[in-house]
Amino acid sequence: MSAERTDLPPTKAAAPAGYRPSARRLAREAFRRRRARRSALIAAASTLLTAVALVALVVGSPGWPAVRRSFFSAEYARQALPEVLKGLRINLELMAVCGVLILLLGLLLAVLRTLRGPVFLPVRLLATVYVDFFLGLPMIICLLVMITGVPALRLTGVTTDPLWLGGAALVLTYAAYVSEVFRAGIESVHPSQLAAARSLGLSHAQAMRFVVLPQAVRRVVPPLLNNLVSLQKDTGLVSIGGVIDAVYAAKIINGRSFNSTPYLVAALVFVALTVPLTRFTGWLTARADRRRYEGGLS
């Protein structure tokens, strides 16, 4: 008579009827529960003591009263919050538009750098020079050159709006970083995948589009989201050109009141936007690692 089958994996199969765990197993499980509770209590106590020590260090410092007046004024926070939120719309629009352009340009650069054959050498060199240049160029310098240098050229048909020029600087710089992420994903796909696709009659472009790129993009989603988090924060740098975003709105109120609380309000708004995206990125990374360890698709 054949053994009864079950839909559960062998390690999670239902216990037979009337099964009672042994005393040793019960003791081991009780020990693990006690150890978990003890670890949680120690972690909570350690965190609480550290937080209390830091608060006591800051509050007990000689300059704390002046810092409290300058950075923690409830009155100026109420004044700044509506203006900061109004300026935040510029940052969010800039992140959305620049994010799409960065993905497209970064993917194009990555594909150009992975082309093989002597005929594509000039293209590979140009893409490599572009990536190396903007990887080494500080973001603030790129913004200053775009916002102040391009209008000085007086080119016909070229905008002088600092918002557009600042966005262009973000795209140029971040595309270099994103292209390296995409290139790492493309090179992580085993060459046999491309060879198998070519053996089935697909051209190189078709094999890249239907076989290599889908796998590569799926593997690099977490680092791409990390770049998006950085982009979200760096959109505040366009304020150096006079764009009234969240940072510049805080600067205007600070210039009127000589109180720095608006900067703290802007910082907390950016943190409130960044933390959920950062946690989501961590969850995606953990899920990808778990699937890879379990033999699933990466």
Question: Can you walk me through this structure?
Answer:
- The chain has 298 residues and is mainly alpha-helical.
- It is 76% helix and 0% strand.
- It is built from eleven helices and no strands.
- Helix 3 (74-113) packs across helix 6 and helix 6 (162-188) packs antiparallel against helix 9.
- The longest helix has 40 residues, at 74-113.
- The protein is flat.
- It starts with 22 loop residues before the first helix and ends in a 5-residue tail after the last helix.
- Residues 1-13 have low confidence and may be disordered.
List the helices and strands and how they pair.
Blueprint: H1 23-59, H2 64-71, H3 74-113, H4 121-136, H5 139-153, H6 162-188, H7 191-199, H8 204-219, H9 221-234, H10 246-257, H11 261-293
Helix pairs in contact: 3-4, 3-6, 3-10, 3-11, 4-6, 5-6, 6-8, 6-9, 7-8, 9-11, 10-11
Main location: membrane
Membrane topology: Multi-pass membrane protein
Keywords: Amino-acid transport, Cell membrane, Membrane, Transmembrane, Transmembrane helix, Transport
